[in-house]
Amino acid sequence: MPQVDYVPAASVEEATKALKAAGPRARILAGGTDLLVQMRSGRVRPAVIVDVKGVPGAVGIRREADGGFVIGAATCGAEIGEDARLERAWPGVVEAACLIGSTQIQGRASLAGNLCNASPAADSVPALVAARAIAVIAGPNGRREAAVETIPTGPGTTSLAAGEFVLEIRLPPRPARAADAYLRSIPRTEMDIAVVGAGVNLTLDPRGRVAEARVALGAVAPTVVVLEDPGLVGSELDEAALERIDAAARAACAPISDKRGTIEYRTKIAGVLARRAARIAYDRARG
Amino acid sequence: MKRYVSTTVNGDRVEFLADAGATLLDALRDELELTGTKEGCGSGDCGACSVIVDGRLVCSCLMLAAEAHDKRIDTIEGMASGSELHPLQQKFLEHAALQCGFCTPGLLVAAKALLDANPDPSESETRYWLAGNLCRCTGYDKVIRAVLDAAAELRQARV
């Protein structure tokens, strides 16, 4: 392996300075479960590895006064799965984060890593997009916020500028009668990459009808596909509504055929998972 | 570039110099000569390199040695008390839960992390927890029985 330097950044300033100085030859290290694999295979050869876990706010979960959650971008999946309050508010985000890899991977892998690795099949990203999560980005010009779906721009590429890194993932306050769910399809029960993933986030009105719905699909296009109006609003999620979300999901897909699945298979499964995840989210929201 | 690393391994304070790009697995095996931790795939898929860092189970092949600074690392070498085997180790022998033995240190460390977090896991919980530890010899069944038996014995010992 060629010479590489390691910078354990203790502040936003240290991290952005090191990232800016090395430009495209810098890599951000959170949990390292993608980066170290890419380095070993020779796919990336960074000159500088900037470890952001020591930056204040990068690790840990806190609940805001308004009921929103702030998840440090480098917080590992296991810690996310252990937070009972977060799981009550955002069960879909938590189940998506905890589906990533083995117990060992859960001890390291982070939401920002999953987001910025920009794999179309990233499990946590559809759930975060359905949840309207916001990424807090630190950089040389201060902080800015961006909807998570604007970060990945294609497989392996992001909209982050030189010197920028994701510091926090923010989840909005939860109204009453709201819940989310995430489902993915893999050929076995553990340790695989999504063939299709579906995140559904619902808010119900006091009579149990869907007041707001947001659906996001993974692994069926270069980036996450959002269904803005999947045909659920006003329904009690009867069979006709489920048929509409199934059809809307299939229509929104633009997948490829690869060793994990064909275009036809992915398209069909996207409809099935959107329908099933909607059912789970609806039942959770009704309580 | 070399990094100075001061850390705690199995309760002992250790210091070493590590290449900035070297993994914790490299440092454990090559610098500290703790060769119980094995390299299988080197990409986080097989779990042979499992260690516990600040109480969390991780693959040491997916962590830089430099990241170990000021951490608490527990490896397979710290599992037995002198010549007295840990109950998990004893049960692996009794149930013949190993053949070639290459995956065994990783499985034992992962199983210990499970029982530290959950003293009474179900068979299903145990299988999911150990899904990141690949074994090509045993077919897993004896491993699962050994872990559940060790869990039962450890619970008895607590009463």
Give structural notes.
The complex is a heterodimer of chains A (287) and B (159). Chain A has helices at 12-22, 35-41, 77-81, 84-89, 91-98, 103-106, 111-116, 124-130, 239-252, 263-286; strands at residues 5-8, 26-29, 48-51, 61-63, 69-72, 134-139, 142-147, 152-154, 157-158, 165-171, 178-185, 196-204, 210-218, 225-227. Chain A is an alpha+beta fold and 287 residues long. In chain A, 52% of the residues are buried. Chain B has 159 residues and is α+β, with helices and mostly antiparallel strands. In chain B, strands 2-1-5-3-4 form a five-stranded mixed β-sheet, sandwiched between helices. The longest helix of chain B is centred in the C-terminal third of the chain and has 18 residues, at 141-158. In chain B, 45% of the residues are buried. At the A-B interface, strand 1, helix 2 and helix 6 of A face strand 4 and helix 3 of B.
Question: What attributes does this structure have?
Answer:
heterodimer, A: 287 residues, alpha+beta, five-stranded antiparallel beta sheet, four-stranded antiparallel beta sheet, 10 helices, 32% helix, globular, B: 159 residues, five-stranded mixed beta sheet, 5 helices, 35% helix
